[in-house]
Amino acid sequence: MLVVHHLNNSRSQRILWLLEELEIPYEIKKYQRGSDMLAPKELKEVHPLGKSPVITDGDVTLAESGAIIEYIIEKYGAGKATPPAAGKLDNLFFTHYAEGTLMPILVNKLVFTIIPQRVPFYIRPVANIIFGSVSKQLLEPNIETNSKFVEAHLAKTKADFFAGGDHPTSADYQMLFPLEAIKQRAPGHLGPNMKAWVDRVHARPAFKRALEKGGQYDLAS
Amino acid sequence: MLVVHHLNNSRSQRILWLLEELEIPYEIKKYQRGSDMLAPKELKEVHPLGKSPVITDGDVTLAESGAIIEYIIEKYGAGKATPPAAGKLDNLFFTHYAEGTLMPILVNKLVFTIIPQRVPFYIRPVANIIFGSVSKQLLEPNIETNSKFVEAHLAKTKADFFAGGDHPTSADYQMLFPLEAIKQRAPGHLGPNMKAWVDRVHARPAFKRALEKGGQYDLAS
User: Fold this and answer.
1) Model-level pTM?
2) Alpha-carbon distance B51 to B10, whole Å?
3) What integer pLDDT is reported at residue B28 of this predicted model?
4) Which CATH number is associated with domain A85-204?
5) Which of A84, A173, B31, B116 could form an SS bridge with B127, CB 3.0 to 4.6 Å?
6) Angstrom distance (rounded) from CA B99 to CA B163
């Protein structure tokens, strides 16, 4: 039986969505973030990197969202997550782009917001100046460029999903977490087609089942 | 003809290595970083994200290292970059892990080193304290965990390349840039098997040809 080692409020929610969408039997083993927001040590017993998502499937232990999604689709997908031929390259691109380019920028936006709040109070004013300036000069323009790019792609495809078809493919499973993060943490950058895409995913029965099984997940609210 | 839009000192050096290794004909169009270390605006004319690597191949314009490497191997690889059956999952994992997990940490190490050097001199002492503390508490333990994980994998495979075979596969092309970065910027974290792997890649005739064609590339020194 495939087991999803699922951390609350994390990228592994998209693995649950994929499994529900493809109607693949699985078990969930749940892990809760500590008060420091980090994954608990027990995850290190599953995989040495100690992060989520990670799955076990018989002898296989596999981490890294993109790898897990591709593994599940290839082994259990039965063609249900195959992109249309014309969207194969878009699917390949967005499958890598979600974690290779977009997520690191969004994680840094979060880190750069949190750090000034956590330094000793007497250096907080200087910290605010430094991190505010880096955000403005480096991060915000980067989020803007990337959001406009994603928005333009969705506007151009004129289809429901990233690869241009009528069903989600690996690109959609990968893109869910970063687009939810933009909706929550940088809503000014969420274009109308991005918003429609997130709403469309959230309305799917499979997504709702995954949410119920995964438990607390702030990004879908 | 496949064209690599190649930025000096960038992740696109690994695309040149791949093309030389597979003996695929290609052209290079070179771009130089500005004094701000960023990619020049001309790259935005090739792809809206304005980054490198990006390739054009007839009607296809494709960015994102992982996507480019998979595209080239599938279209032109003729089986030469196929992983052994037993290493297929390792290949899948490291192909995503290189940019999805390892690179963002290494980029942040660089960013967190550069920022304190660029703030006005009168807040530099406070900046050094803040960024030094974040590096020590957050980044360094993360680099250590990941380096040990990569080292353990290479020690375990007892083979020349990441997927356990005698020739490079997509995992190796993806892992080259982050492992070169650890060798240069965090040499204390470079384990003996990681060092042997980097040296082995750098000794390959195809890598040397790629280096000659790509021009200035600090990470290979």
Assistant:
1) 0.96
2) 10
3) 97
4) 1.20.1050
5) B116
6) 17
> How open is the CA angle B40-B44-B46, to the nearest 5 degrees?
115
For residue B53, is the peptide bond before it cis, meaning its omega torsion is within 30 degrees of 0?
A: yes
Identical topology for domains B3-81+208-220 and B85-204: no
Domain spanning A3-81+208-220: which CATH class is it, in words? Answer: alpha beta
> What are B131's two structure tokens?
């960024």
Give percent above pLDDT 70 in chain A: 100
Distance from CA of B45 to the nearest CA of A (A): 13
Q: Inform me whether the C-beta atom of residue B49 falls under 8 Å from chain A C-beta atoms.
A: yes
**Sign of the four-CA dihedral A141, A142, A145, A150:** negative
Q: What is the pLDDT of residues B161-185, one digit of tens each?
A: 999 999 999 999 999 999 999 999 9
For the stretch B143-158, pLDDT in tens is 999 999 999 999 999 9
Residue A88 — pLDDT band, cuts 50, 70, 90? very high
Answer whether B62 touches A (CB < 8 Å).
yes
C-alpha to C-alpha distance for B105 and B111, rounded to whole angstroms: 10
Write down the ipTM of this complex: 0.96
Half-sphere exposure (Cβ direction) of A218: Cα atoms closer than 13 Å = 8
Domain coordinates of chain A in residue numbers? 3-81+208-220, 85-204
Q: Copy the structure tokens of residue B97.
A: 């892990």
pLDDT in tens, A132-163: 988 898 899 999 999 999 999 999 999 999 99
Contacts of A149 in chain B (CB under 8 A): 48-49
Token representation of residue B49:
């994200």
Contact between B64 and A97 using a beta-carbon 8 Å cutoff? yes
Residue contact B65–A127, C-beta within 8 A: no
